[in-house]
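pinned: reference chain
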Amino acid sequence: MNPFLSWLLVNIARRKLESENAQKTVSKKEIVPVVRNLQVELTHTIKECIFIIIGVFSAGFGLKGFLLPNHFIDGGATGISLLLENITTLKLGVLLVIVNLPFILLASKTINPKFAIRSIVAITLLAFVVHFVDYPIITEDKLLIAVFGGFFLGLGIGMSMRGGSVIDGTEVLAIFLSRKLSLTIGDVLLIINIIIFSFGAYVLSIEIALYAILTYLAAAKTVDFVVDGVEEYVGVTIISDKHDALRLMITEKLRRACTIYAGKGGFGAYKKTYDKNIIYTVVTRLELAKLKTEIDKIDKKAFMIMGVVKDIKGGMIKRKPLKD
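pinned: its structure tokens
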């Protein structure tokens, strides 16, 4: 055989083999992330389902163990359902689905269909729990009913929100109206609940309406507590000429991460700016006092901006507790 032809055939075979190996390598690289993504998706789905189930049973306990036996009402879609349950012959489980259904349909357009499906499943499950599960009546004291009924109902709403759904659809309506009107979500919810409590005062009694406001406040604070977490995070921006000492203090003494970004000081002579390194770090509310103390030790004139951070992920926030 011609040596050149032999060399050409060998090279063609070698290149074909290399191409097949490369394709296998690419296939492996493509398959591994897909498998990992499926594992992450499954883990998150299981966790969210657990949150929703806990939320549904907690809300059911608040309703049947406290509010329902004493003809109390709450705010939101649940309050509307409780109000209708007192003035109609329909059961609360049926009313929960009927009242929330328009809000869930709105959620499929305002937020996304996946959220709407989760929410309708959670609300339907709550309806079954309220209808079929027998909870013990805990107390007949009106103040305890208002406070703890609101607490367990708020715990249920908050846990369901952590699971990526709602069991009270008025939040969806508030989001929708806030986009159309010059109002915040909180303002819209306040208006909706004022209307509900006014009807409650007219249909039931002023006393029941006043207790309903207390129930709503207890539920709202519990929702904030569950959704935002036990520890509230604070983002701190520090501007100081002693930025190097502050950076070392935050990273080495407090064992927290920080970000340095370049800035220019605007205060000074005409047409003159001053280069400054700006420090940004995130700590918990409990750690804020310690951070302020350490900053004052280095630079009492340091300029600090503090703002609430709703949630964080990663970093060195809880890697090591602060020590005096």
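why pinned: The CA atoms of residues 43 and 180 lie 37 Å apart. The longest strand covers residues 274-284.
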